Amino acid sequence: MDLVIGIDIGGTKTKVGLVNKEGHCVEHTYFRTREYPDLDDYLDKTVAVIDELKSKFPEDLNILGCGIGAPNASSRNGTIVNASNLVWKGTVPILAKLYERLPIPTKIMNDASAAAVGEMMFGNAKGMTDFIVITLGTGFGSGIVANGKLVDGYDGFAGELGHIDMTIGDGRVTGQRVKGGLEAYVSATGLKRTILYMMSMYMDESRFRDIAYNDLHGEEITQAAAEGDSIALKAFDYTADILAMAMANFTAFTQPEAFILMGGLVNSGKWIFDPLHKYFEEYLLDVYKGKVKILRSGLPPRTTAICGAAALIWEEHKTQQPSEA
To answer: At how many degrees (to 10) do helices 218-226 and 270-283 cross?
Structure first.
């Protein structure tokens, strides 16, 4: 049985799974990233988790390689560099150190770029040559495919669209210290900050006036919107407006066939998507209107990031397969 290891390194959790050639994660688990501030301890834990997953399969298991998605990852150098939400700072030679423990073909890429490869192989971007994946989780990630090729950049750091300065209103600072940066507004964290902003701007009654910031969760904001809470509705509208403007700007430089959205904020459903569709069409140049789709990810919801990481290896094996006569 041929399988690929997929690893998604997040600031809170590290998700690990085994993925088959159809893009299905047949076994997966996770552990908390922040419990391993020492990189060597973290990698020892990662390998132990991989061994545990492999033990659930027969002896004829064949691991083809390991794909890793991580914030601020350089695909060219095999490093993670100055990731604001990870405990390891500076330049982290994670690929070289992992290979010492797990000597198999291994690739690393920015998590959103890995997700774009996954969508192209297994998800809703099959057959597309031009699209942009946007991940709306704790932060804002993006992976760009143009003319059938991932836009990787000179040093493997292309596509950091979440840190583009949108020069918006209150000038919030992102994790990379960009004032007015997109991620500070359009993300799960940005939505929470917008709730506070809306309460300072309007005197409307809202359940959130009695909830501390650290106790505020995205699911609760969605529920409040469904119940007609005006602060929640204003927050979603504000968030969608900013995202739509950014997407219209992005359209102008690659003209994607589609934007594919994934991550926790996408679970807000119509409260984010309805105003997003409206504002997006308004902001698009006339030549693009009606041509650009907004889709949800076609990867399995619980294992999206794992499958995207594993696609980095499966993509290589797919290109190596002889074509049919």
So the answer is: 80
Same domain, 45 and 155: no
**Residues paired with 13 in a beta bridge:** 32
Contact 309, 7 (CB under 8 A): yes
Tokens, residue 93:
């030679």
**Judgement on whether residues 114 and 160 belong to the same structural domain of the protein:** no
- Beta carbons of 149 and 143 less than 8 angstroms apart: no
282 and 254 in one domain? Answer: yes
Q: How many CA atoms lie within 13 A of 195 on its CB side?
A: 26
- On average, the pLDDT of the chain sits at 92
Cβ–Cβ < 8 Å for 318, 15: no
SS3 sequence of 150-218 = ECCCCCCCCCCHHHCECCCCCCCECCCCCECEHHHCCCHHHHHHHHHHHHHHCCCCCHHHHCCHHHCCH
Nearest CA to 80 out of 130, 34, 11, 30 is that of 11
**pLDDT score of 318:** 77
The C-alpha atoms of residue 189 and residue 201 are separated, in whole angstroms, by 19
> How many structural domains comprise the chain?
2
| Cα angle: 266, vertex 167, 188; to 5 degrees | 20
Q: What is the per-residue DSSP string for 220-255?
A: HHHHHHHTT-HHHHHHHHHHHHHHHHHHHHHHHHH-
How far apart are the C-alpha atoms of 133 and 143, rounded to whole Å?
A: 5
* 148-157, 205-214, 232-241: segment of lowest average pLDDT: 148-157
Q: State which residues form the domain around 10.
A: 2-118+301-320
Q: With the C-alpha atoms ordered 79, 259, 288, 282, is the resulting torsion angle positive or negative?
A: negative
pTM of the predicted protein model: 0.88
- φ, ψ dihedrals at 35, nearest 5°: -80, -5
